[in-house]
Design brief:
Blueprint (H helix, E strand, L loop, with lengths): L2 E4 L22 E7 L18 H8 L2 E3 L6 E2 L1 H10 L32 H7 L3 E6 L17 E5 L15 H6 L5 H10 L10 H15 L4 E7 L10 H4 L17 E2 L5 H31 L6 E7 L4 E2 L4 E3 L7 H4 L3 E4 L9 E2 L8 H9 L27 E5 L2 E5 L3 E6 L6 E4 L15 H16 L14
Parallel strand pairs: 2-7, 2-9, 3-13, 4-14, 5-6, 5-7
Antiparallel strand pairs: 1-6, 3-12, 8-11, 9-12, 10-11, 14-15, 15-16, 16-17
Helix pairs in contact: 6-8
Length: 471
């Protein structure tokens, strides 16, 4: 595995002795950690009793923990566009699918040129800006995720990244892989064939390199640490797998064949869940190393930390594995969202506001006393720390390709974006969403689609013709 980046840390962006820029009221550093595909129900701080996430749990005790957080849109690129800009990606109007990409999902496109990124705004305020990620979709310059960063380091080799030739793949690993998904593992197997120690896995690389940059950074700084794990494939070192499973001698379900889970036996499904859980624990361990570095540098006392995930991953709970667009149950939609204030405000408390990915940028700017160039779609959640209230959200809506989702305190609804294929769950009595009530409560489903989804979207939702390559 390797990395590609730009810029070296050196002299301060703002010369020493200069006063604060006129629009900045704080010398607070900012760290945003994005953990891809991390399910809320697989973190101890969110109630999981058996998966080991001691570092997330410890940080949660020092943070305001949002219990009802959701991405404003899925999947990877859509969620990150919102995080980096403060603007909603959904409802995917005027979408133009990028040419030559292997993902076709509504809203999956570069950050628009006219939208300022958080890094650009903070760089203009004298912040040193740094970005470390192994999330391969952000590597293309045309996607604009590097904009505003003095340093951006892209760690190569995840999933389908064409990093190494196929003929260098690890043949023993391919032999151990479940036959149904061997094709999906070929590129990844080649990319990771040279591993020799745990430090060569991706989460360790991301957090180690981020720790190195911390030691060289000039304050104030803004850092985004974007870790693609626990996104599939799930092949952590064996010591992590042994925490959750043993005595397995079948083909390894390192990655799912997205859709119905009926191709898996119960034993194979148990193994898949163990591999995912093991990957979560590995990512948590190396997050802990990063947090230890922050502590060694005495950064906790003057650094705002936000940790969140972009979405979850289905592991057979509704007879589905992967991230199909129609599978908008909690295992896919419910995300981790922690906000740690350097002065300890909100520490150990919870909040049920419908926090989301597009709230990250306005929250950071609000905390720092910086006005954005134009009003953002998201809310400043930092006001909650001082017993204030962001703009009321009595419901929340989101989009994933041609499906939509909405919830309020009583119901969760999702359907195609024209209202067909509707599902409705009364989460007051059915929090795991097992009993679809759309047929016997059609008036509720209609209300949620019309009053929540369509009103939030500003009218009927767009539909795009699927190209032949993706049919």
């Amino acid at each position: 595995m390797g990395s590609a980046g730009a810029g070296l840390l050196g002299a301060s962006v703002v010369s020493s002795g200069c006063g604060l820029p006129p629009n900045r009221q704080s010398e607070t550093n900012v760290v945003v950690v994005i953990v891809d595909s991390l399910r809320k129900d697989h973190v101890g701080a969110y109630g999981n009793p058996w998966i080991e996430t001691p570092n997330l749990d410890s940080l949660a005790r020092e943070s305001l923990r949002f219990t009802d957080a959701y991405p404003e849109s899925l999947p990877t690129i859509c969620a990150r566009r919102a995080i980096h800009t403060g603007f909603r990606t959904w409802p995917f109007r005027d979408w133009h699918a990028p040419k030559g990409d292997d993902v076709w999902r509504y809203g999956w496109q570069p950050i628009p040129v006219g939208q300022a990124t958080l890094a650009e705004i903070l760089k203009g305020q004298g912040y040193q800006t740094m970005f470390v990620t192994d999330t391969l979709h952000q590597f293309k310059p045309s996607y604009n995720f590097h904009r505003g960063f003095d340093v951006f380091e892209f760690i190569r080799g995840q999933t389908r990244d064409a990093y190494r030739p196929h003929w260098t793949l690890d043949r023993e690993k391919m032999r151990r892989t479940m036959a149904k998904v061997r094709g999906a593992m070929r590129q990844y197997s080649a990319n990771t064939a040279g591993r020799r120690s745990e430090e060569d896995w991706f989460a360790p690389q991301v957090f180690t390199r981020s720790s190195d940059l911390l030691g060289a950074a000039t304050q104030p700084f803004f850092m985004v640490v974007d870790c693609y794990d626990p996104h599939e494939p799930w092949d952590p070192p064996q010591k992590y797998v042994d925490l959750y499973d043993d005595d397995y001698d079948g083909g390894e379900p390192y990655t799912p064949s997205e859709g119905p889970s009926d191709y898996l036996t119960q034993r194979q499904l148990k193994r898949m869940r163990a591999l995912y859980s093991a990957e979560v624990t590995m990512a948590d361990r190396w997050l802990g190393r990063f947090l230890e570095k922050m502590e060694d540098l005495n950064l906790f006392e003057n650094t705002l930390i936000i940790i969140l995930s972009d979405h979850g991953h289905a592991l057979g709970e509704h007879n589905i594995v992967g991230k199909p667009v129609q599978a908008l149950w909690p295992e896919l939609t419910d995300i981790v969202f922690l906000l740690r204030h350097p002065e300890g405000k909100g520490a150990g408390k919870t909040n049920d506001y419908y926090a989301s990915t597009h709230d990250v940028a306005p929250t950071i700017l609000g905390m720092l006393g910086i006005q954005p160039p134009e009003p953002m779609d998201g809310q400043d959640l930092s006001v909650i720390l001082d017993r204030g209230k962001p703009e009321s959200r009595d419901h929340f809506s989101l989009g994933y390709h041609n499906f939509v989702w909405a919830r309020d305190e009583a119901y969760v609804y999702f359907s195609r974006n024209d209202g067909t294929k509707a599902k409705l769950y009364d989460v007051r009595v059915d929090p795991k969403m097992r009993n679809n009530r759309a047929a016997d409560r059609p008036e509720v489903a209609k209300r949620m689609f019309e009053d929540y989804v369509l009103k939030d979207a500003g009218g009927p939702l767009p539909r795009y013709r699927t190209p032949p390559a993706f049919r």
